Amino acid sequence: MKKFRKVLDGLTTSSPVNIGGAPLCSSTAGTPTAAPTPREIEVVETLVSENFQICKTVRHGFPHQPTALAFDPVQKIIAIGSRTGGVRILGRPGVDCYCQHDSGAAVLQLQFLINEGALVTACADDTLHLWNLRQKRPAILHSLKFNRECITFCHLPFQSKWLYVGTERGNTHIVNIESFVLSGYVIMWNKAIELSTKTHPGPVVHLSDSPRDEGKLLIGFESGTVVQWDLRAKKADFRIYYDEAIHSVSWHHEGKQFMCSHSDGSLTTWSLRNTAKPFQLTFPHGRTQRDGRKPESCKPILKVEYKTTRNSEPFIIFSGGLSYDKANRRPTLTIMHGKSITALEMDHPIVEFLVLCETPYSNEVQEPYAVAVLLEKDFIVVDLTQSNYPIFENPYPMDIHESPVTCTAYFADCPPEIIPVLYSIGAKHKKQGYSHKEWPVSGGTWTLGGQTYPEIIITGHADGSIKFWDASAITLQMLYKLKTSKVFEKPKMGDGRVAELVEEDPFAVQMVSWCPQSRLFCVVGISAHVILYRFSRHDATTEITALEVRLQCDVEEPISPSETEANTGLLDASLHSPQHPPGSPGSATPDSVRDSIPCLRVKNRPIRMPPGYQADLVVQLLWVDGEPPQQITSLHLNSAYSLLALGNCNGLVVVDYLQKNVLLCMSTLELYGSNDPYQRLARSPRKSRQFAAGSGSGAGAGVGYCPTSTPLSTHCTDNICMRGLSNFYSDSKKRIRTSYQSLTELTDNQVSLELDRSRSPTSVPYPSPPHNDHCSLPKPTANLKANHCSPIFYLLDNVKGPGRKLSLPTDLKTGLDHVNGHCTSPTSQPYGAGRPKLNRRGPSRPPFRKVQSAACMEVSLPAPHTEGCASRRAMLQQLHGYSVYSHDEQHSTAYSWNERESRENSFSRSRSSSVSSIDRETKEAVTVLRFMESYARKVDAVPSACLWVGTSLGVVLVIALSIPTDEEERLEEPVTVMPSSTVLTIKGSVLTFGSLDCNGSLVSNPYEVWRDPHAPEDPDCPRRRKLVNFSPSTSQEMSGEGHLAVVCSEKQAKVFLMPAQTCLYVHHITESSFVLRADVVSVYNSVCLACFCANGHVMMLSLPSLRPLLDVNFLPLTDMRIARTFCFTEGGQALYLSSPTEIQRMAYSQDMCDSLQEMLGELFTPVETPEAQKGFLKGFFGGNAQTFDREELFGEAAAGKASRSLAQHIPGQGGLEGMKAAAGGVVGDLARARMAAEERGQRLGELEERTALMMSSADMFSRHAHELMLKYKDKKWYQF
C-alpha cells in the first residue's frame, strides 16, 4: 500500500492539474513549458542574460565584533577591523569601504602607511597583509605568513619602510614593506634580557622607537620587563623589571620619559636618567591608604596615551583602572588634564581608542584635539578642545542596531518629495549637546553619481521602533524614527495579564507595509496586532480606534478516502485519554482562562501626536478559549480601496479602515466553500480540548497537553509542532531575550543515544516504552524534571544535529539539566511514560508569541544540510511563525524510525497541494495577500477590485470586492467581500503575486494620492480623494483582453491568463532546495521574477515566459538572519542583514554593477606631508630626533636573509594593473603571459650571470691549481 501511494504521488506531482481546466504539459525541472491557450499571447521580452550580474555594493552600519582601530592623521581616514576578518575604512560622509580577508581570521592590529595610501593588517592566523588604498576597491598587494611564531604586536614608524613585528615568543622581527619579506635582523628575547634572568619575559606587547633617536627601539614584554634596544650596537641600553604586568607604553614627545599602564590599575612614569624605579606611581581610581601603604589594586588599565600641548598641561588618557569595590559600573574612558580627572562612562565595553593629534611626528608637541573610541557596539569621537568633552555627531549610520533589527523593507524610486519631508520632521527630534565642530574624520572624496534616484530603507526593531533611512546614492542617513509602543499602555507589574511581559519585547515589529504615494504605513507587531499610520505635517490630538478580532480555526485534517478506514482506529484512540490528576500541570482554575482579550491594551484616551506618522487604527487578534493569538504571517494595504488584509495560520481578516470596521473574518477552510480541493476529515469544534477535558477545567485542559501515562497523541504532536522557532518561550520563566547582548554560543548536546544524533528537527517522537516506569528509559533521560518540558528545549532539539549550532542567552543555560556531564533536553528521549508533557495553556504562559529578532538569528545551517525537508521546515518556522508539519508524521506508530528518517530527508515527496494525502499539513496558513484589479470569475468581462490570497498549501484564492465608487457613498455604504469559486494551485507555499498586462508590462497597484488629514479646511477648494488606477483595461486597447497573473511559490512559478484561469507557463525553480524570497521587479524598463533560494542561489526569470536569465550561487545561507531580512527592490538592487549590526546592499543588474565604480568614493587623495618643525632652540635642547639609515642595518647586504621556514611570502592581486588585468579577459591573459615571460627572461638572465660567474671562478681555480702543480713538480719530498 505504501509503494502504491508513492507511485501515486509521483504521478500526481509530475502531472499537476490546473483548476482552470486547461491541461499542463509536464516538464523537467528548470524548463519552462507552454500549454495550449485560447489564443496566442505575443509578448516581446527584452531582457537577456547579459543584463544581469551579481555584486555587493556597499555595507552600512557598525562593524560587527570590532577588534582593532587605526587612523591616518594626514589623510584623515579611519579603519576598523573585526573578528570575522572584515575591515571598514571610513572618511567623509559617502566614503565608506568594506574589505574582507579571504581567510576570515580576526584582525588583531591595523597600521596605516601614513599618507602613502596603504594599510597593513595583522590577523589571528599570523599573517600580515598589505592593502592598496589607492583604488576604490582596496585589494591585497602582499601577504606574509608566519609559520613558527604568533604575531602579538606591530609598529611602523612614520616615513619608514621597515615594520617591527613582535611575537608570542618574545622575539622581534623586521619586515620590509616594499617587498614584504623578512629581514635577517632579529632581536631574540634571550638577547634582550639579562643572562641571569631565569624566566621568560612573555610575549611582546609594545614596540616603539624613541622620539629622540630612531635607532633606539623600546620593547615591552607582558611580564613587566621593558628593554630599550640599540639597533646599531645590537645590545640593550637599559632594562626595567617591574612586578606588575604591562598592557601599554606611551612616550613623552621629548623622548626623555615614558609611561606604562599595568594590570593592577596603576600608571608608572619612567625617566631615562634613572631606570632603577619609576619616578612617579599613581592609582588614578584607587583609594589611598591612611597608613601610607600602597593603594588598593584596581582593574587593569588596558591602554594609556601621553600627549602634550603647547599652552596647557599634558593629557593622560586611559581606559579601565576602576576600583573593584564599585560593582556594575559602566566602562569608562578617563581624561587627566592637569589636576582635573574626568571619567566618561560608556554604554558598551571599550575595544580600542586613539588620540587624534595635529602632527604625525612623534618628536613634536602633539596637540591632541579628539579621541576616537571604538566600543563593542558603537563608535564615538570625543572633542578634547572643550572642557565638558562633548562628542561629535556621527555622520555614519552606526545605530542601526540600537535595538535588534527584526525586519527590513527596501523601496526604490520613491516620490522625490518624501525624503525632504521625512528629514525635516525627523530633524526636530534629534539629540542635542553635540560638539559644534566638524567631524574630524574627513578624508577621501565622494561625488554624487549619475544614476541616482530616491531610495528608502525601513527597519523594524525589537523595541517596537521603526526607522526610515535615506539610501539614495549608496549612502545611508536616518530620516525619521517612529515608536509604535506609544500606542499602547505600558505593562504594569500589578497587572496579572501582562505581568510576564515586562522582561520581553511585546512591541517587536514583525513586518511592515508602506505605500509611498499615499504615505500610509502599516506595522505588524509580534503581539498579533496591526497599526495603521497616516502621515500629517500638523500635530493633532485624537483618539485611536481599536478593532478587536476573534480569529479561530477548527482544525480539520485533510485526508483522502483511502486512508479514512485505515486511520479510524488511531484517531478514535486519540479521543480518549485519562483525566488529569488534581494538581497536575495540566489542571488549572477557571479564573486562568483568557478569552476575548488582546495581548496589549490600546490607550483609550485622546493622545497628542506630533507631526509625522500618527496612529489611526489598531487591529488586534484576541485570545480564544485560553489560546493566544497566532502570529500574523501576511499583510497587504491598498489606499485606493481603503482596505487592509491580514492573515495567519487560522484564517483571513479584511478591514475597512475608512469606515473602521471588519468586513471579513473567516478561517482558511471557510474561504474554499464547496471548492475545497482536498478531502478533509470533519471533526467537532474544539475537539482537542475535549481530548483532555477530564479534569473538569477548560483552562487546564489546554490544547497540546498530554497525560504522562500515555504516549504523545496525534493532536498533542500537532500542537507542539505548530509553533516556529521564533515563537518559543520557557514555562520556567527563563526568557529568550531577542537582544543579542546576552547571546552566547551553545554547542551541540552530547547525548549518548545514537538515534538522537541523527533525528530530524521536525521529526515525530519515536514510540514510547510499553511500561510506565523510569527504568525503561535510559538513565540520562529518566532524571529529567518536570520544569524541563518547556518549548525552548524543543527548540534546542529542533536545531540539534551534525554541524549545527544555536546561540542562546547566557541566562538560558542555567535552566538546562546537566545529567552525567551532558546537557539533556526533553526531546533527546522518547515521548513516553515518566515524561512530563507540555501544557500550552498554563497560567504561566505569556499572552503573545515571542519575537526572534533578525539580528540574533544565529542558527547555523550549513548549505549541505539545508537541502532537506527538515531544514526547510525549521527555517520556515522561523520565517513565518507557522508550522509545516506533515500529516503523515503524526502517525508515529505506523512505521519504523528508519522509514521516517528516510522520508524526512527525501525530496521526492510533493510539497504541493496535490491529491497526495501523505504530505498534508495540519494547518493552512495565509502566506501572501495582494489587492489588485483582476477577474474574480471566469465569466467576468471587465476587471474589478480583488484580493488574491496565497496559502502554505500552494493554493491561490481570489476574493471579489464590491467597493462604492462615489466618495460620499464610500464613507457610508458597506464594502461587499465575496469569496469566489476561483481556486488555483501551485507546488509549495505561495510567496508572491504579480500582475502583467497582455503586453508584458507590470500593472502597479492603484493608490490614493496623499492628502494631509489634519490640514486646515479651505471652503473654496474642498478636499476630495484623488485615485490613481492601474487597471489592466487602461493599459491596453481592448478592455476584455484580460491580464497575466504571476504566482511564485517556494518550488514553482506559474503565469496564469485571467479570466480564463489558464496556466500559460510553469517553471520548476528548484528541486533540491526551496525559495525563501521572491519578488516581481522592474529592471531595464521591463519586468522579471527575482528569487533567493535557501541554498544561496539568486535567480532571475523572465516574464511572462519564465525563461531563466541568471542563476548564481552568490550567498551561502549560514544563518536565518539573511533569510528573514533579504529583499529585492526595483532597479536591480537588494539588501540583507549581513550581521546583527550591518546592512549589506547588492546589485543584480549589469548597469548598476558597471556604475558602481563611479558611485564609490576615493579613499586616497594627494595631500602634501606636513614638514617637521625646525628651529635653533629645539636643536640646542636636543629635541630633534637622530635619524639613521635603516637600510644599512636591515637590508640584505648587512643583515642577510631570514630563514625561509620562518615566514612565507604570498603575492597578492591588489595592484591596479593586476586588477585591470584580472578583469580584462583576454587582455588580462595576455598581460599575465607577458609578465610571466618577463619574469622567465629575468630568471634566465640571472641564471646566465650565475653560470658565467661559476665558469670564471672555475677557470681561476684551474689556473691556481696548475700554477701550484708547476711550483711543486720538481721538488723532492724532503724539500717541502
Automatic annotation (TrEMBL):
The keyword Isomerase does not apply. Residues 907-916 have a biased composition (Low complexity). Its main location: membrane. GO terms for biological process: exocytosis; Golgi to plasma membrane transport; protein transport. One of its GO terms (cellular component) is SNARE complex. It is found in: Cell membrane; Cytoplasm. Residues 572-595, 753-773, 819-850, 897-916 are annotated as: Disordered. Transmembrane segments: none annotated. CDD domains: R-SNARE_STXBP5. Residues 1215-1275 form the V-SNARE coiled-coil homology domain. SUPFAM superfamilies: SNARE fusion complex, WD40 repeat-like. InterPro entries: Lethal2_giant (IPR000664), LLGL2 (IPR013577), V_SNARE_CC (IPR042855), WD40/YVTN_repeat-like_dom_sf (IPR015943), WD40_repeat_dom_sf (IPR036322), WD40_rpt (IPR001680). Belongs to the WD repeat L(2)GL family. PANTHER family: LETHAL 2 GIANT LARVAE PROTEIN, SYNTAXIN-BINDING PROTEIN 5-LIKE. This is Syntaxin-binding protein 5-like. It comes from Paramormyrops kingsleyae.
